[in-house]
């Protein structure tokens, strides 16, 4: 039974960390969902570890499910660069309960028959334990596969113009990544945070030296410059050029279409409806979560960290993930609409915009995000004010028009009364003066 379920849910499980939340604690997600239905995993004796200490290459679809007598966890991962064999990777932090509710709902949408499966497993706690363990393992294996693929391919995407530029010095294909990050002169500018890029451009060599000497600390306070189109860089506007960096766009194409798709001409290429990742998971649109996942994989491929973990010095990958989502999680904003339309055209080769993107709470209300949200609110307020002023202007014009019409009617009416008065007063004419007319009296006297 478990083997059948493994085969049934294998594909969907591989997309949980990719499309649901890159850093979600899957065990806690299941625990929260079952607890809301009155089933306590701890009381039932279901023990599952999810400490994010092992990202492996994605298993094949026909890989056997874990069994009671020996799970896949016993295999040797010492040669896999995506597995932290020293066990020092940090555990996943559990999201807030309201976020769990949203993620649980999206998980059920992703795996429609999950409710029925969980109901059956409530009567088979051993099976439930192995099932959740399988889901976790498959999800992390998929993330590990993405990490390895980006690590191997990123060197081809770093040169701005691959037809004339080459990566110098070349980076090693070995598991070690010490020749990346700020140790590499062509990678360093891609990792510089947006808010520090102006300082970097003044003296790149000095900036890099200070970073390596830890005189300048690289944090997640703002997004790295590989997310931006350098030609659109504006030190006063963090939205300018965001999501349009050449390396970021290549990473998006790589993620959904593979290396062969990266340098294809969007104008001459066909739709991605039958292409790898989107075909496998039946994805119809880019979401903020998927875009943030790609951004994190690119950032990790560029850094010096050998094993998957959320912290690179003072740079927190989880916070970066959340920041990218926050940038793109306001579908009513004009900039967000324009950016998502651009990404769909460049990456998916179509004009469709993302739809039905679930809200994600901003867990890091830092100054950049506050400024971003303030700027968007200011745009909305400005549009509202302009609409109100336009309405007032139209109302005033209508009032003046009506007043002018009433004045014209009054003037016309007054003119008519004057004419009527003249007719009544002089109806006998000059030859027909009244009895009191002195001239008439004089004529009669003579």
List keywords for this structure.
two-stranded antiparallel sheet; mainly alpha; 52% helix; 17 helices; 446 residues; globular; 2 domains
Overview of this protein structure:
It is globular and about 100 Å long. It is an all-alpha fold and 446 residues long. Residues 57-95, 351-364, 431-435 and 438-442 have low confidence and may be disordered. A two-stranded antiparallel sheet has the order 1-2. The protein is built from 17 helices and 2 strands. The termini are far apart. It has helices at residues 2-13, 16-20, 26-35, 97-110, 114-121, 125-157, 188-191, 197-202, 204-212, 246-257, 259-262, 276-281, 288-302, 317-328, 334-347, 367-425, 438-445, and strands at 311-312, 315-316. It folds into 2 domains: 2-72 and 79-148, no CATH class; 158-381, no CATH class.
What's this, in brief?
This protein has helices at 2-13, 16-20, 26-35, 97-110, 114-121, 125-157, 188-191, 197-202, 204-212, 246-257, 259-262, 276-281, 288-302, 317-328, 334-347, 367-425, 438-445; strands at 311-312, 315-316. The chain has two domains: 2-72 and 79-148, no CATH class; 158-381, no CATH class. The protein has 17 helices and two strands.
